[in-house]
Amino acid sequence: MVGNKLIDNQTLVKRMHRHQHLENAALAEKLKTGVLDLELMRDAGLCTDACADCAVVSVRFSAITFNRLTKTKEPVFDVHNSSGNYIGSYFASAFKSLAF
Description:
Order of helices and strands: HHEHEEEE
Strand order of the largest sheet: 4-3-2-1-5
Helix content: 10-25%
């Protein structure tokens, strides 16, 4: 958020994270942990109460699908907090990092 204004889609796309190494489901399925970019999500108005205080999360590969903002196919992950509660599903580009 810039002042009280949410960032526009063009700015959002520029700030999204690229994970080119995640081109296939076989690799994405192995990932277990991620660090959400909460600052980016807040600035875009996409941060829910469920994820507001939880940057480090567990991830489970869900699908590879088309991201209309980046115009690329990328993995989507189901995300759970440290208590195991479901937070939501996020494209790989919402994560600062993803790990095995």
